[in-house]
Amino acid sequence: MSTAIPLTLTFGGQFARELEELAVPWQAEEAPDPQLLVLNEPLATELGLDPSSLRTPEGTRLLIGNQIPEGATPVAQAYAGHQFGGYSPLLGDGRALLLGEVTDIHGQLRDIHLKGSGRTPFARAGDGLAAVGPMLREYIVSEAMHAMGIPTTRSLAVVATGRPVRRETMLPGAVLTRVASSHLRVGSFQLARVNGETDLLRRLADHAISRHYPDAALAGKPYLAFFEAVIAAQASLVAQWMLVGFVHGVMNTDNMAISGETIDYGPCAFMDAFNRGAVYSSIDADGRYAYANQPVIAEWNLTRLAEALLPLLHEDQDQAVALAVESLGAFRTLYSAAWSAGMKSKLGLLPDTHDDVASPLVDGVLALLQEGQVDYTSFFRRLGSAARGTPETARSMFADPGAFDAWAARWLALAPDADLMDRVNPVYIPRNHLVEEALDAAIAGDLDPFNRLVDVLADPYTQRPGLERYAGPAPEDFGSYRTFCGT
Ligand code: AMP
Ligand code: MG
């Protein structure tokens, strides 16, 4: 056997070892004709992997679990979850595998995970597969989120398998190689609790604490401190989504990571015109996961986490509930603080600007955007020019510029900091029409538009000449956008 560099990688099987009740050893399906479509070289290097070795046929097989590095025990992870509010006692990785953990060059433990690697015992009616388009889509959006500084799982590679996948039509199949600080979900705790084994629940919590919140171990009530740390991480995460206009689309409890990273990019999308009710997912008919509902849904999911953790919070159930309720109360405060601070930055206002002054300005501008169906991302970026004394580009976005002028006069009186605005208001986001254009070309065999888009999104806050078409809203004929789950 060759000794190509990626194979020297040491995979730990910490999750599989410590939590074997939640781990089913499994193998990825053999891909008939694996072709590397995209490799994230900076991420590979960060993981201590040699990109050129990963580009060899052997490296490509490693990326999809067809060649198992020494020490690795691939497992399908079991978890439960509330999907659209209804409880599913057993979900688990139906088409995914955890290859194992590696230690990156910063000493951090990172999961290497496969999506689209074939049926597992959790596949139910699913085929276990994924198509090239949705896997490249996750690659684009997750890497864009990372570049914006928002916690997220990462994308290491997408490999076409050479196996067709049956959806509405036959599509080329692919595996996404995903990297995360872990794949522990709210649903993992729900399963551990439902099994009624406090021992498993405790081991799961200890595992999560050691991986994500080591300080909690030092607290007087470690499991309560852990819960509070998850609350804080989610409050911060969802505030960041809201600030960039991201709609996750399927915030089921199995799609909420304990680490506070954005996970499971399915029917997600970025808003173009500001709309509190924005829903893109074809299956979210009631708008449960609409843009403006996301903070409330996060709080709802954290309440489900609290229920799962109760036996660890106090031996007396009533006291456990009282502790959980008190901790949950912090979510709204933390979320509001993160969101308000972020909105002040978007408007170029200093952090110490009093809320009595900032809040009416924030509410006022969002009402104008909603009313005028104004493109959220380009408006805030153009507002930077207004802060520099050139209001025309922002002003021209309103059918009724008078209302904007009145708002802008009050805002300009606070001397907004345009440089601060440019650091937090992205120029380039994964706009739906650009993503679709890149995926259509990629599926037809041309990866250039995909690679260009990924490049542009890697530096979202720096406006560059020649990239104007990446900075504007969709052309009128793009129509209303629909996204799909489980593709
Ligand atoms: P999601 O909401 O997309 O994260 O997926 C919900 C559940 O469905 C998870 O347990 C997935 O593993 C499973 N799933 C989604 N698509 C497939 C598929 N094509 N084959 C098997 N399981 C799937
Ligand atoms: Mg999921």
Automatic annotation (TrEMBL):
Keywords: ATP-binding, Magnesium, Manganese, Metal-binding, Nucleotide-binding, Nucleotidyltransferase, Transferase. This is Protein nucleotidyltransferase YdiU. The active site is at D254. HAMAP family: SelO. ATP binds at G92, G94, R95, K115, D127, G128, R178, R185, D264. Pfam families: SelO. Its EC number is 2.7.7.-, 2.7.7.108. The keyword S-adenosyl-L-methionine does not apply. Transmembrane segments: none annotated. Belongs to the SELO family. Mg(2+) binds at N255, D264. InterPro entries: SelO (IPR003846). NCBIfam families: PRK00029.1. Its cofactor is Mg(2+); Mn(2+). The keyword Transferase applies. It is an enzyme of class 2 (transferase). GO terms for molecular function: AMPylase activity; ATP binding; magnesium ion binding; manganese ion binding. It catalyses: L-histidyl-[protein] + UTP = N(tele)-(5'-uridylyl)-L-histidyl-[protein] + diphosphate; L-tyrosyl-[protein] + ATP = O-(5'-adenylyl)-L-tyrosyl-[protein] + diphosphate; L-threonyl-[protein] + ATP = 3-O-(5'-adenylyl)-L-threonyl-[protein] + diphosphate; L-seryl-[protein] + ATP = 3-O-(5'-adenylyl)-L-seryl-[protein] + diphosphate. Nucleotidyltransferase involved in the post-translational modification of proteins. It can catalyze the addition of adenosine monophosphate (AMP) or uridine monophosphate (UMP) to a protein, resulting in modifications known as AMPylation and UMPylation.
